[in-house]
Amino acid sequence: MPETQPTDIQLPDAGQARPPAKRRDNARLIAAALIGGVVAVFALLNLNDVKVHWLIASGQTPLIIVILIAFGLGMAADRLFVIRARRKRRAATSDDATSP
């Protein structure tokens, strides 16, 4: 019977820490869930109608709709700013790499 030689494969230890990126993603997910939960509870506690002056009209709207629209617009603005900052950072690093 031929002898087998041990391989150089190393298995991770059970006590080994997760990579930082995975921990950061988990922290972001937990933070997003907490913020979403707080917004949901806040919106559900404010169900009464309010007078709102929209851009083209005004009228009575449930406050929960106003809160959810404001939250959605805030999230969209945040994403736009984050994307813009990443593009600027990426352009700056690529300019540094190409300059002599």
Description:
- The model has no long low-confidence stretch (mean pLDDT 79).
- The longest helix is centred in the C-terminal third of the chain and has 36 residues, at 63-98.
- The protein contains 2 helices and 2 strands.
- The protein is mainly α and 100 residues long.
- The radius of gyration is 25 Å and the shape is flat.
List strands and helices in order, with pairings:
Elements lengths: L19 H25 L4 E5 L4 E5 H36 L2
Antiparallel strand pairs: 1-2
Structural shape: flat
The total strand number stands at 2
Strand content is: 5-15%
Mean pLDDT across all amino acids? 79
- Major beta sheet, strand line-up: 1-2
What is the string of SSEs from the N terminus onward?
Answer: HEEH
The helix count comes to 2
The quaternary organization reads as: single chain
Counting helices, strands and paired strands, the structural category is mainly alpha
Quick synopsis:
With 100 residues, the protein is mainly alpha-helical.
Provide key terms for this protein:
single chain; 100 residues; mainly alpha; two-stranded antiparallel sheet; 2 helices; 10% strand; flat
